[in-house]
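Incident log, structure service

09:12 report received: a user says their structure output differs between two submissions of the same chain.
09:20 pulled the input from the user's history:
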Amino acid sequence: QVQLVESGGGLVQAGGSLRLSCAASGRILSTYAMGWFRQAPGKAREFVAAIRWSGGATYYPDSVKVRFTISRDRAKNTVYLQIDSLKPEDTAVYYCAAATRFSSSVTNYSLKEKYDYWGQGTQVTVSS
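09:34 re-ran on a clean worker, output below:
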C-alpha cells in the first residue's frame, strides 16, 4: 500500500505560481512512477505530468509542458508540481498518483489505468 497526501493548493490570481506537494508513505520502494492529474467540474480527469521515481525521466502533455514542472525528492518521498503563469482554466482539483507497475516508456504513465494509488486531491482556483 502507498498513501498519498497532496497539499499546496489554494486561490491564486492569474499569472501567479503555485507549487503542489504530494507526500508518499508506505511501500514507496514499489513505486515506479508518480503522476499528477487534474479534474475540473464537469470534466474528465486529465493527465498533466509524470516522473519516474528512479531516474527522474518526465513527461507532460503539450498543453502544459511550458508552464508545469514535476520533480521529486526521494529522500523526502515527495513529488512536486510547479505551476507557473496560472490561468483561470487551470482551476481544478489536482491529484497525485503512484504507479507500482513498470512501463518501458514514461509516456505510458499519462494513462490513469497505469496508477494504483491516488491521493485525495488539492483544490487550485485561479481568479482572473
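09:41 both user submissions now match this output. Likely a transient worker issue. Closing.
09:42 reviewer note: The longest strand covers residues 18-26. The chain has no helices and eleven strands.
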